[in-house]
Structure formats: C-alpha cells, structure tokens
Write a structure and sequence with these properties.
It contains 21 helices and nine strands. By secondary structure, the chain is an alpha+beta fold. It folds into four domains: about 140 residues, 2-Layer Sandwich (Beta Polymerase, domain 2); about 140 residues, cca-adding enzyme, domain 2 (Orthogonal Bundle), CATH 1.10.3090; about 30 residues, no CATH class; about 45 residues, no CATH class. Helix 12 crosses helix 13 and helix 13 crosses helix 15. Bound molecules: adenosine-5'-triphosphate (ATP) and magnesium ion (MG). Adenosine-5'-triphosphate binds next to helix 7.
C-alpha cells in the first residue's frame, strides 16, 4: 500500500487511478517518496470533472500530453491519462490516449519504472520490475536498441537509475545498445543533459555508474572538456555531503566558463562552480586569524566545500563553521566625514585600510580602522 499525504482523498475522487513510476519503485525499495504521480484510464477532461466534483483544485498542466495536476492538502499530484506512442523521433513523442494499462507501462523506459499500484495496494507488474528491483538489475522494457532510438535521453536515464538502484554487472543488452547508439546523446538539448547529470550526481554513490559511462564512452560525449572520476571518488570516500554542485566541481575538468556555457548552467550554478575552482588555501593547523582572514573574503559554506575537495579535515571544518564571519567596519562615509571628497581616492584608502585590517587578523574595530585611515590620509 502506498501512503502519502492527500493520496486517500485523491483516490476517493479517482478510485480507478493508480500510482505509477518512481513512487511505486521507491515504495517497494523502501525509499522515501518525494512526489507521487498517478495514471488514469479516464480522459483528462473526465479527470478534471471528477476533481471539480470532489472540490479538489486542479490545474490543466499539460492537457495535450494528458496531464492534470491536482492539489490536495498542499501536495501536488500529476495525473496522466494512459498513453501509447504513435510516433517517436529520438527526442519527442506523439502520443495517443489509451485505456490499457499494459500499453502505458510498455512505453516507460525500465522495468523498475513500469510498475503501477492501485488503491487496494495490488501491484501491477507487467515486465518483471519487482524481480529486477530486488536483484539490482536495470533492464529496458522491450528491446534496448529500439527503446533508445525512440528517445536518446534514455541513455542518460540508464546511468541515473543504474547509480541509484543497481549492483554488479550491468545488463549486457543495454550496454551493447548504449555503445552502439551513444552518439544520439549529441542531439539532446543542453538543458536536458545537465539536468540528467545533476540527477546522476545526486545518487548516494554515482562512481560505478560514471565508470560505466566512461567505458561505454558516453561520458566523453557529455563532458568533452574532461572529467576526473578518481577525484570525485576520493571526495565521496572522505564522506563529503551529497551536494550536486560540489560533486560536479570535483568531477569536471577543463575551463568552467566553457563548460557552463555549453551545458547551459544557470548563472547561480556557474558562479558556485567557479568559486569552487579556487583552491583551498588553509592548512589543517591554520591559526584563528587565518580562518578569520579567509572568512572575510569568502563565506563559510564555500570555504567548507573547497576544503572537502582538497582533504579530510573535520576539525578545521568545524572551526570554520563556528567562526563568525568578520565584517570590515569602515565605509566610504567614514572617509567623507574626514573631508575626503567622493571619488576614486575613497576606494583607494578603503582598500589600504582593509589590507591593514586583514593583516591584523580582522580584529581592529571601527575606531581603530578610522585611526588607521587618518594615518594614511595625512601621509
Ligand atoms: P525520480 O525519483 O528520479 O524522479 P522517476 O521514476 O519519478 O524518478 P521521472 O523522470 O520523474 O523519474 O519520470 C517518471 C516516470 O515516467 C518514470 O518512472 C518512467 O516510468 C516514465 N518516464 C519518464 N521519462 C521517460 C522516458 N524518457 N522514457 C520512458 N519513460 C519515461
Ligand atoms: Mg519523478
């Protein structure tokens, strides 16, 4: 039985709907559920009408694809009408609605993703997904080669789910098909590729999957600027938190600006990766003053992330986390009060005083900094 806030209410409005995909898989795997998707044999209009009748708020998210979002107890549920593929071109599919559960399951990518569970808790498993999940096997539904040519994103999805659910040797048919068809990932949009890379890196331990990406030579296509799997393996081995961007910064080799543009990272992501390129300059026995100096220039989370990239120094990290970030106590207006007219000279003096403040370990207070500024001005 699948338990999720709001699901019972939704099921009383749509009793024939079933939970599908990831929520079934993760329930069976004993993993927590982030969200729950459902499928229904009813048309999207009928689904909307049922929700309205039950006073459940609904949003026509993707009516053309058959998806309606229901809002119950603050939770979003996507309810998609059963579908079958009419045409595929490796990137997009033209679909037709269906009322056949097995047909809908057959267009899903992997056996472990193709199961559904009904309101009574019965599992509908048309392709042996449960056995595969229990054995740690990832298999395409149907013939791997065909399923990949329908949608090349499935190559990258294979590595995401392999990292999360699999142990041991990967499915031979899948690997052969991926090796044969790997060039297809070059036709995928940068956004989809980056989004898949992030999901792969969010797995507890993506190393075996990345190694498989390397031996199948998919990783060369995804990260042509280069990559360093041992560096990431070391980061994970020293117990660094599961932080996708920290992991990406550790894995990626080559010029971050080029990579960010190529994979269309958001500005925030690119900035974080850039900030993690700067080597960690503190040594494990750094003095408190060194810590304060480092913190004056860089926020603690960034320094801590950099420290994970270079070594395992729990004491140093704890000290960084516990040290207040020093704030330089002087501003331009302190200098205008001394009669310095607004202009470039203000910045020059501030920089000089700040350098003095840093050299002293960031302990000088505002009065001391003002005195120092006066010394510079009269010179
Ligand atoms: P996650 O926990 O990572 O979100 P998920 O199984 O929910 O895992 P999604 O990418 O959200 O994965 O997709 C939801 C479901 O839709 C999958 O379980 C699968 O059944 C189906 N699906 C999604 N993308 C594809 C695809 N490209 N080809 C075939 N089936 C797909
Ligand atoms: Mg999902």
């Amino acid at each position: 039985m699948i338990k999720f806030p709001g699901l019972d209410i939704l099921w009383s409005a749509l009793p024939e709907a079933r939970v599908v995909g990831g929520a079934v898989r993760d329930t069976l795997a004993g993993k927590p559920l982030a969200d729950v998707d459902l499928a229904s044999p009813l048309s999207p209009d009928e689904v909307m009408a049922r929700l309205t009748a039950a006073r459940i708020k609904s949003i026509p998210t993707g009516l053309a694809h058959g998806t309606v979002t229901a809002l119950v107890e603050g939770q979003h549920f996507e309810i998609t009408t059963l579908r079958r593929d009419v045409a595929t071109d490796g990137r997009h599919a033209v679909v037709a609605f269906s009322d056949n559960w097995q047909e809908d399951a057959a267009r899903r990518d992997f056996t472990i993703n193709a199961m559904s569970m009904d309101r009574a808790g019965s599992l509908h498993d048309y392709f042996g997904g449960l056995a595969d999940l229990q054995a740690g096997k990832l298999r395409f539904v149907g013939e791997a080669r065909i399923r990949i040519t329908e949608d090349y994103l499935r190559i990258l999805r294979f590595f995401r789910f392999f990292a999360r659910y699999c142990v041991g040797t990967p499915d031979a048919a899948a690997v052969a098909a991926i090796e044969e068809l790997r060039d297809g990932v070059l036709g995928l949009s940068a956004e989809r590729v980056w989004s898949e890379v992030k999901r792969l890196l969010a797995a507890e331990n993506p190393i075996a999957s990345l190694q498989l990406m390397q031996t199948t030579r998919v990783l060369d296509l995804v990260l042509p600027q280069g990559f360093d799997i041992p560096h990431l393996a070391a980061l994970i081995a020293r117990g660094a938190p599961v932080d996708v961007l920290l992991r990406a910064a550790t894995l990626l080799a080559g010029d971050i600006e080029t990579i960010s543009k190529r994979l269309k990272l958001s500005n925030d992501e690119a900035e974080i990766l850039q900030s993690l390129q700067i080597p960690f300059a503190l040594l494990p026995d750094a003095a408190d003053a060194d810590l304060r100096r480092a913190l004056a220039d860089t926020e603690a989370p960034t320094l801590i992330a950099r420290s994970w990239m270079s070594g395992n120094w729990p004491d140093l990290r704890a000290r960084l986390a516990a040290t207040l970030r020093p704030v330089f106590p002087l501003q331009g207006r302190d200098l205008t009060e001394f009669g310095i007219p607004p202009g470039p000279r203000i910045g020059i003096i501030l920089t000089a005083v700040r350098r003095w403040w840093l050299a002293g370990g960031c302990v000088a207070n505002q009065a001391a900094c003002r005195e120092q500024a006066l010394l510079i001005i009269v010179k």
